[in-house]
Amino acid sequence: MDDFRKLMYGVLVAFVAVLVVWVSFVYISACGFTFTCRRGQPAVVATSIPTLAAATLPAPDFSVQTIKLNQCRIAAVNLIGAWVSAGYPESDVFTFTDIDGQNCEATFSEDVHPVFTESNLWYPGSLSCSSCHNPDMAVSSSQMDLSSHEGILAGSRRTSPDAQGTDILGGGDWESSLLYDVLYVRKFMPLGRPPDVPAEGPVVFAGTAIEEGSQ
Ligand code: HEC
Predict the structure, then answer these.
(1) Which ligand 1 atom is nearest residue 181's CA?
(2) Ligand 1 centroid vs 200 CA: distance in angstroms?
(3) Average of pLDDT values for 143-157?
């Protein structure tokens, strides 16, 4: 009887041992010595490797993009200031010194106008001044049109489209102007301007450097 029992236990233990070895063998050969078993997971379906950009017809003409090599850089508020101090000319050239100390010249239409009419200029996501201060006096904030030279000179709080309003340019004295006050002193324009926008506004590309000795 005892012998039979021993035999039974022996067979049982051997059976369990073989089972464990077999399962381990299968597991290790499939998954290696890890419990995460990456090899058991389905292959990642990746996007295909991007190929060359599709060719367009007609081919873009890169020669049209003239690159100005002698462009100047100046903070937006200082650019407006230089223009105001020069008597806010509509088409005449005015001069300024840029952040690299170069003598530069600029015009209203090329350089100052975009500062009032371009969005995303004062900070990412900013509206342009002219989107709120537009020519339609019925809806324009502060009844002021900052979309054109004529509108800027006509000032704010105008009673009708052809009325002259409050001068925002300080009569040419930049630091006493309303524009300087809202942009640089109180820093609340463009409306919604976050506090981390520097007082003098973002640095923009404007004007061109005057060649040494050309004047
Ligand atoms: C989101 C709309 C909005 C944008 C963008 C905006 N403004 Fe204004 N602005 C206003 C409103 C509204 C007022 C009136 C605020 C008040 O009276 O308290 C105002 C007032 C002003 C005033 C004062 C006018 C006065 O007579 O008191 C000036 C100057 C001005 N803005 C200039 C600018 C300039 C320059 C920009 C662009 C850099 C600009 N604004 C962008 C809405 C805007």
Answers:
(1) 29
(2) 16
(3) 96
pLDDT, tens only, 69-104: 789 999 999 999 999 999 999 999 999 999 999 999
63 pLDDT band, cuts 50/70/90, is low
pLDDT of residue 34: 80
Instruction: Provide the residue ranges of all domains of the chain, joining segments of one domain with +.
Output: 2-40, 67-209
Distance (Å) from CA 189 to ligand 1 centroid: 6
pTM of structure = 0.73
Q: Using CB atoms within 10 Å of the CB of residue 135, give its burial: 0 to 12 exposed, 13 to 18 middle, 19+ buried.
A: middle
Q: Is 165 in the pocket of ligand 1 (CB under 6 A)?
A: no
Look at phi and psi of residue 125 and say left if phi exceeds 0, alpha if psi is from -120 to 50, else beta.
Answer: left
